[in-house]
TrEMBL record:
Domain of life: Bacteria
Chain segments carrying region Disordered: 251-285
Pfam families: HipA_2
Protein name: HipA-like kinase domain-containing protein
Segments forming domain HipA-like kinase: 13-239
Length: 285
C-alpha cells in the first residue's frame, strides 16, 4: 500500500490540468501535487496513476513518488475560488499525492534532446499502458535537474472503463505516431528486450496491491477488490510480451492546415520523423 500522509495546507491550484489538481503541504513536511477523487474523471484516474506510476518506477523510469493523501475539506475554507472549494468539499477522505518537483520545467522537444534508448523505453512503456496522453500536443513530461520525468498517467489503460471488452481492447495496436518522443528515433526493440522480461505476474501483483481498496470498491462485475486487481494483471501481463510488435510509427497528424506564410512554414518545419526518415534512407540506397 502507498505511504499515507495527511494534507495540512492547500497552497494553490494548477490550472493547466483539466482535473484542477492542487499543490498542498502534508504532515510529513513534504509538498505534493494532489489529484482529487472528486474531480470529474473520478477514482479510476487515480487507480491508473498508481498502477502505471508504480510500474514505471519499478521499470527504471523517472516518475515522482506517489502517496495516499488524507484530505479534510476544511483546509479549503480560505480558498477564494468557488470551483476549488467545491472540489475540496467533494474530495474528503483519501486522495492521491505526487512529489512536487520544484524548479522543473515542461518538456520541450526543441530544447531538450532525448537519446533513442530513453525514447524507446518511454514509448514502449506508454504502449504497454496504452497512454493516449503523451503526444506532441501535451507531452506530460517534465525536465528536472537535467533529467526527464514522466507525469500524469490518468489517461491510461482505457479498457478499465469497460471491463467486458478489456481483453479485446488491451490487445489492440498502439499508435505512437503523435508521441512526444517519436522524433527522437525511439529504439523500441531494445526497450522491449530489456523491459518486457521485467513485467512479471509477481511485479504486476505487487504494483496493483499499492492501490487503496477504497478506490477499487464496488466495481460492477467484480465481487472483491482482489478480483479487480487480478483483472489489471491479466490485461497487462500478455500485452507486455508482444506490444512492441504492434507499435505504429507513421507520419504525425496535424490539427489543422497551417495558415503561416511560406517563409515561416519553412522555419517551423519539424525534424524528420524516425520511420519516414528510415524509409527515405532505404529508398536512396
Amino acid at each position: 500500500m502507498l505511504t499515507e500522509v495527511t494534507a495540512t495546507r492547500y497552497i494553490t491550484p494548477l490550472r493547466e490540468g483539466g482535473s484542477l489538481p492542487g499543490i498542498v503541504e502534508a504532515d510529513d513536511l513534504g509538498t505534493y501535487v494532489m489529484k482529487f477523487t472528486g474531480a470529474g474523471q473520478g477514482r479510476k484516474t487515480l487507480v491508473a496513476e498508481v498502477i502505471c506510476g508504480e510500474l514505471g518506477r519499478r521499470l527504471g523510469l523517472r516518475v515522482p513518488r506517489l502517496v495516499a493523501m488524507e484530505l479534510d475539506p476544511v483546509i479549503g475554507l480560505g480558498e477564494p475560488d468557488q470551483e476549488v472549494q467545491e472540489l475540496l468539499k467533494a474530495s474528503g477522505g483519501l486522495n492521491l499525492g505526487m512529489d512536487f518537483l520544484p524548479g522543473s520545467i515542461g518538456f520541450d522537444p526543441l530544447a531538450y534532446e532525448v537519446g533513442s534508448g530513453e525514447a524507446g523505453a518511454v514509448v514502449w512503456f506508454d504502449a504497454l499502458i496504452n497512454n493516449v496522453d503523451r503526444s506532441w500536443r501535451n507531452p506530460n513530461m517534465m525536465v528536472w535537474h537535467g533529467d526527464l520525468w514522466l507525469i500524469d498517467h490518468g489517461a491510461t489503460m482505457i479498457w478499465h472503463h469497460n471491463w467486458p471488452t478489456a481483453a479485446t481492447a488491451s490487445a489492440k495496436p498502439y499508435n505512437a505516431s503523435d508521441h512526444a518522443l517519436a522524433r527522437f528515433r525511439p529504439d523500441i526493440a531494445a526497450a522491449a528486450a530489456k523491459l518486457a522480461p521485467l513485467v512479471t505476474e509477481e511485479l504486476l501483483t505487487e504494483v496493483t496491491a499499492q492501490v487503496p481498496d477504497v478506490w477499487l470498491a464496488d466495481e460492477p462485475g467484480f465481487d472483491s477488490t482482489d478480483a479487480l486487481r487480478r483483472a489489471y494483471v491479466d490485461a497487462l501481463l500478455p500485452r507486455a510480451a508482444t506490444v512492441h510488435e504492434r507499435i505504429v510509427l507513421e507520419a504525425p497528424t496535424e490539427d489543422r492546415p497551417s495558415q503561416a506564410p511560406g517563409w515561416l512554414k519553412e522555419r517551423l518545419k519539424p525534424l524528420p520523423h524516425p520511420t519516414k526518415k528510415a524509409q527515405q534512407d532505404g529508398g536512396e540506397k
